[in-house]
Structure formats: structure tokens, C-alpha cells
Amino acid sequence: MEKALNRQKILLHHLKPTSSFSFSSQTHHQSSALSASVCAAGDSAAYHRAPAFGDDIVIVAAYRTPICKAKRGGFKDTPADDLLAVVLKAVVEKTNLDPSEVGDIVVGTVLPPGSQRATECRMAAIYAGFPDTVPIRTVNRQCSSGLQAVADVAASIKSGYYDIGIGAGLECMTVDNITRVRNMNPRQVDNFAQARDCLLPMGITSENVAERYGITRQEQDQAAVNSHRRAAAATASGKFKDEIIPVSTKIVDPKTGQEKSVTISVDDGIRPNTDLSTLAKLKPAFKNDGSTTAGNSSQVSDGAGAVLLMKRSLAMQKGLPILGVFRSFSAVGVDPAVMGIGPSVAIPAAVKSAGATGARCVATLLNEMKRRGKDCRFGVVSMCIGTGMGAAAVLERGDSVDELCNARAAHS
After folding, report:
1. pLDDT digits (tens, 9 = 90+) for 53-86
2. From the candidates 39, 68, 172, 384, which is the catalytic residue?
3. Model-level pTM greater than 0.85?
4. Mind telling me which SUPFAM superfamilies this protein's record contains (predicted)?
5. In the annotation, is 143 catalytic?
6. Where along the chain do its domains lie?
7. Which one from 39, 68, 121, 143 is the annotated catalytic residue?
8. Across-strand partners of 108?
């Protein structure tokens, strides 16, 4: 017994516990034990270590295609199922995973008819080498569909439905246009203002946000300039290289009809030379006296992403890298007329449910957290959702385990 207590004393000394204590008395010797305390990352980012550490839902791989401009970009002639197949195959090949072990594939997608996209996704899984025993389904929560897919897989693994799952996202806006809802219920729409606002185009909700919160045209243009410059700098420095899977495809010349084989390996919607003077010349796109233009709006895009999740214990058993821990997810509703404010409500909810602790965004976020090192322990991915909602998820770096340096004496 005395030897065991002495070993504990030496161990605790090396672990540099957060609270000071003395081993001067034999009584204290006998009452001292290892227990969880605040993390080494600091009180503001701390949470108590749960006993079910091995049950953490972790991400071991996250890849995406380049994101290309719809109708004019590199994927304008690439079928949606080919885009998804590329990232599904990459997830398996880069982890040496047996595809038959995957319990489910959930694909977030918005614009196409549900049954059509579900069929395309099933075909993509077969292209990628998954056996017919592996099921696949789609999920649609508007703009957060990819993130919802990842959250659904995380929840299913946590519930014990299966051990390994893939959350993915897919959109092919070249062929799947944003259209107004058909066959509305005119009686209900006329009687409920907020229901009517669910039908507002996103451009108009953008104008509503700008008007309600006093966001000027110049501020929006400046944000666009900063975004393009940062994206261009990140591309030039190779920051997206680890997350992007090059896609070999074809491009058809619209004038001659001639096909050309190409390999797309970078996002093609970034405009590094964008400046305020150029943006200032653009006319409002949605409202004559508005401030939202083609230059300060997000582009319509084609692309896909996939994220591989499992429990930490299984990832360790397989020797797979733990890129991040899926800590929490939250989806909330807001006024449909200003649906763009959704993230401002969803992020606090997700952070709160994580404790003080679309698939494409997850891949980018995890790689950026890795680059920033251990000073960047947590990351948040969020987006607004059409019809007035917002979603957010909190991720933790996979290598941010505090290595028990938060050990302290437990007192009864």
C-alpha cells in the first residue's frame, strides 16, 4: 500500500496538478486520488473529462471536391453522382477502411427532387466501391443539409445503431436551379405573414437583414473583398490542398460541343483581384434601391464533401488519426424574413450544449484548426437556413486531449 501511494505521489508531482496540495500527512495520502479538473486549455475552454472518453464521436477523415461555379465552372458538365463518388472513394482509400464496415451513408442535399437525388447517391456509393449491403439516404435541411448529415451520423453512432458512418454533402446547381415553391396553399399563406415570408427569395431576406440591422453597401462590399483575398491567399499557400480531392472530368465547349478532359484541383470561384471600386459599379441584384449585388453575394456552386465518423475507441483500435471530436449540434428557428441571422442564434446554442467545452465546411475547419496548433482547441461551423433557421456545430481538435495534466486530489 505504501509503495502504491508513493508512486501516486510521484505521478501527481510530474502531472503538475492545478490545485496545490501536500502529502505531509498519512491521512491525506490515503484520501488522495486522481480525478478530473479543469483542462489545460484554460477555464474559458474547459470541460470536465467524462468517464465515457472512448465513446466520443470523432472524425477521422474529411475530404471535399473543389467548389466550382455553377453553369460556368469546372463541373458544369459533371453529373452529381460522379462528384459524390469521388469523395466517398477518397474517404475509404485514404483510411484503408473496409467499406463493408460502414453502417450508413447520409447525404445532405437541397435542390433536386428527393427521390432523384437519393437514386443518384445510391449509384455514387456503388461507383465508389461500397458493397450493396451498405445503405444510403439523403437529408434536406436547406442550407445546413450537409452539416445535418454529419450530425445525424454522429447521433446514430452515439445511439449504437452502427459503429461507423459517413456524413456527406452534395449540390449540383448547374442542373438543379433554385425555384419558387409550387402549389402553395393560398388561404394559409394569405393569413399568416411569417408563412408568407418563408417564400421570400434569399436575396430579399439579405436586403431585410441589411435594412433591419443597418448594414451598409460599403460594409458588404468590403466583406466580399476581404473574403476573396483571404481565399486566394489560402489557395496560393496550399492551405486547402490536404482537404481537396482532385476530380478528373470533362468540360464541353458550349460553342463547338467538343469535349475536353480536365482535372479540377482548386476552387474556381475565387476572385483575387476584386476591389471596392469594381464592386461599387455593380447594380443591386434583388431590389432597385438595395445593397445586395452579384459581387457581395455567395455564388451558386457545384461540389461535394464527405466526413468519416466513429467512436474514439474504435478509431484508436484501427490506428486512425483523430482529426476532431464532434461535440455538439444545434438547429434553431428565426424570423423567416431575416433568415440570414440564423448563425447568431444557433452558435450560442451549440456552444452551450457542448459545455464550456455540410460537410465541406467541416473539412475546411478541421484542417485550419490543425494548422493553427494547440492554441486553437475548438471550432464552430455554422450557416443560415432558408425559411428562417440556423445551424451550428462545435468541433474539438482531435489531439487536444489534456494528457491528465488536470489531475488533482479528490476530497470526499
Report:
1. 889 999 999 999 999 999 999 999 999 999 999 9
2. 384
3. no
4. Thiolase-like
5. yes
6. 54-177+187-397
7. 143
8. 139, 169
